[in-house]
Design brief:
By secondary structure, the chain is mainly alpha-helical. It has helices at about 25-30, 35-50, 65-85, 85-100, 105-125, 130-140, 145-150, 185-190, 200-210; strands spanning about 165-170, 170-175.
């Protein structure tokens, strides 16, 4: 409790969420890592953690806007964590996705995005099951969701089965999304909203291969290029 006459930290307000709005989430997902938006979202998550908990974001975010940005951020931070050997970035990405997955625009996409975070934790020598349990403690409303992912079979946590693969861009290591890799068994969990065979996804396929997205496969983990500080 704050001392008398000294106000405590202010809870989040809509104005704090500017970094999650504006612009297309897919375009943000494909931008170089890190950029200024990543830095702003890291700052937001740290503020949320210190002013009442990350679950306060649930009252402020919308599925098709802020939650989609948080999902994109989570995959970006999984990539950045491996690139920089920085476990904190993986943890921030996991917390962001834990919040976003509680306001899903597409539950399948959110669940699939846990795969790069699980894979990144392994790459960094951490225990992914423990990391997911810890994230559930930090975001209590997401605890059941995170434990359910943790308890899935290995095949239904596999990076490629979830529609991702290890790749690289000009700055180094990156997780790239490719829906053609998606496990049929995983897709069948969402038979009312199946991805495979849906015509609108041809647009996404074309966009991923139009030259805008992450580049060819490589296993580089670091980059010497200047980056915004996180």
């Amino acid at each position: 409790m704050a001392d008398k006459g000294e106000p405590g930290p202010h809870p989040l307000e809509l104005a704090d969420l500017v970094c999650l709005t504006g612009g297309d989430a897919q375009r943000y997902a494909e931008r170089p890592i890190p950029d200024e938006r990543d830095v702003a979202i890291v700052t937001l998550l740290r503020k949320a953690h210190s002013t009442g908990g990350l679950d306060q974001l649930l009252d402020l975010i919308r599925p098709e806007v802020e939650a989609e940005t948080l999902r994109a951020f989570s995959v970006r931070m999984a990539s950045f964590a491996v690139r920089r050997d920085d476990l904190e970035m993986m943890r921030l990405g996991l917390l962001a996705l834990a919040v976003a997955a509680l306001r899903p625009a597409n539950r399948r996409d959110d669940l699939a995005a846990f795969a790069p975070l699980w894979h990144a934790a392994n790459q960094l020598g951490a225990d992914p099951a423990l990391e997911f349990t810890t994230a559930g403690s930090a975001v209590p409303p997401a605890a059941n969701l995170l434990s359910a992912w943790r308890d899935r079979s290995d095949g239904l946590r596999d990076l490629r089965a979830m529609g991702f693969h290890e790749s690289a861009d000009a700055d180094g290591f990156r997780y790239a999304e490719d829906w053609t890799l998606l496990s049929v068994d995983f897709d069948r969990e969402f038979s009312d909203h199946s991805m495979l065979g849906r015509i609108p996804l041809l647009r996404r396929w074309r966009a991923l291969r139009a030259g805008d997205g992450p580049a060819s496969s490589c296993h580089c983990r670091r980059s010497d290029r200047d980056e915004p500080g996180i």
